[in-house]
Amino acid sequence: MTRSRAPRPRKDALRKPNGLDHLAVAADAQTHPGQWLHCNDYRTGQAAEHVVRMIRDGRIRSYQPQAAYETYAAHLAGGNAAVWVRYIIGVETKPMPESLWVRVPDYGSQPGYSGVRIRAVEIYPYCPACGGPRGELRNDRFVRDGVHLVRDAWDNACGHRDTYPGVIAEAHRLSTRRAAGDGRKSLRGVPGGRYEAAVNLLARAVEENVRVSAHTAVELLEEAGHKAAAVEVAAFHRVLMGRSNVSARSALLYLNSQDEEALKTGRAGAWVDGPIRPGNHERGRRR
Ligand SMILES: [Zn+2]
Description:
Blueprint: H1 10-15, H2 22-31, E1 37-42, H3 45-56, E2 69-75, E3 81-87, E4 100-106, E5 117-123, E6 138-144, E7 147-153, H4 164-181, H5 196-208, H6 214-223, H7 227-239, H8 248-265
Antiparallel strand pairs: 1-3, 2-3, 4-5, 6-7
Helix pairs in contact: 4-8, 5-8, 6-7, 6-8, 7-8
This protein binds zinc ion.
């Protein structure tokens, strides 16, 4: 066997991956306005993001007029990625959020820990199996050891079912990716955020020593009287238990993301750590 053949040009592979017919995808999207359609799968997130840029700036010419189409790249659980497209003319659409905050039951992983608490975690807005948009969130009430709790539940239109452990693992993936992406940003609290002062304190500690752990961060915050932030970071640390090297830096980014989200949506306090008594979260549903 000889290996004399030159590799196929990369440009062509991207323009028409696996013989994908973008014109057909564009036409299909146009006949289903407002509906997200799977366009193609890629081995890497970078490739998918590149295709998304090419659709957005018109280098892939099938999606015309450009303003009529929206597209996103989904980072999937297996490490590959998918591109999804929709046609938005003539229909009202909600923009695809950058991420979702969901309340999930956390059963902990420490030996002897048998309780459950409700944690808010940030996840992708799309299905980790195929990249299709996740379904609308709804309150899901359940009782554990006689305590009434509320978590978020949703059904994905694609038919793939999310599991809570899967969601917690995804939240970790997302925060790791964020931390890598934010690597060069200077670390500061979100102005006006609940944890601004706490984050600035941690930022100074991290600037002095990058290796400061989340565990140490909890102590520092307690010491300085940032009690709520200390509780948040301790809970964040526990969700990620079993994974080594949870750094103060990622705890800090987590606090910032909480503040950013709270300021953006005004939903601060909508989720609660610990038991939610019936009637507390929503009015008039007690029976
Ligand atoms: Zn799916």
